[in-house]
Amino acid sequence: MHLQPILKTEQLAKLHPTGERPFLFSEVDIEVFPQNSIALVGASGQGKSTLLRMLARLEQADGGAMLLHGVPSGQWAPTEWRKRISYVPQAPVVLPTTVEDNLATVSKLHRTEFDRELARRCMEAVGLGHIGWSKNAAELSGGERQRLQLVRSLLLRAEIYLLDEVTSSLDTESKDMVERLLLHWCDSEGTAFIWITHDPEQASKIGKRTWQLAGGKLHEVSAPAAEDVK
């Protein structure tokens, strides 16, 4: 049975901020299905982060349409859209409170029960099992904050994660742990992710599909496997 995409765009476009050419990118048509693991590659300055922020409705598109489960973006409340499509920035944003408060932020915002056991397992999986939850998150290293932010986002249990170089501050061991967790999460939760990376090895490891943003156009440079689209 053919699955419907979680997210679809039609002719999505963004004007170039400097005006040196009409569009930063245009005519972006994508479909993202459950369990898609997509590596987004391309040179700096092509608009990869801008595209992810647009998909999360954190930045305005200058043309085209986005549909979530077939429903146009304008018919979704932004907060409900972002519960389902979560953007995780490269520079970690943590609250200047305890690690536990940071982990519980999602449940407090959406008035759901804090899944303490899932949070513990995720912290272990990314190599943060030794961190005391009473510690102030502002005292963590850059790499620790990056992983804490990711775990906090996973607790949202979104349908799509938009990951903006989320392992850029990590050593090889920590990066491998994050990659394993996200690939497992994709398979076990049915979640999809679009992951910006400048590391070809990482792209080949985590991307069942690979998109390249270059010259103002988005190209699929590796075809999805049959199981990804059916």
Description of the molecule:
This protein is of the alpha/beta class and 230 residues long. The chain has one domain (17-229): 3-Layer(aba) Sandwich (Rossmann fold), CATH 3.40.50. Helix content is 34%, strand content 25%. It has 9 helices and 10 strands.
Topology:
Blueprint: E1 7-15, E2 23-32, E3 37-41, H1 48-55, E4 63-68, E5 71-72, H2 78-84, E6 85-88, H3 99-103, H4 105-110, H5 116-125, H6 142-154, E7 160-164, H7 172-189, E8 192-196, H8 200-206, E9 209-214, E10 217-222, H9 226-229
Parallel strand pairs: 3-8, 3-9, 6-7, 7-8
Antiparallel strand pairs: 1-2, 1-4, 4-5, 9-10
Characteristics:
single chain; 230 residues; alpha/beta; Rossmann fold; six-stranded mixed β-sheet; four-stranded antiparallel β-sheet; disordered C terminus
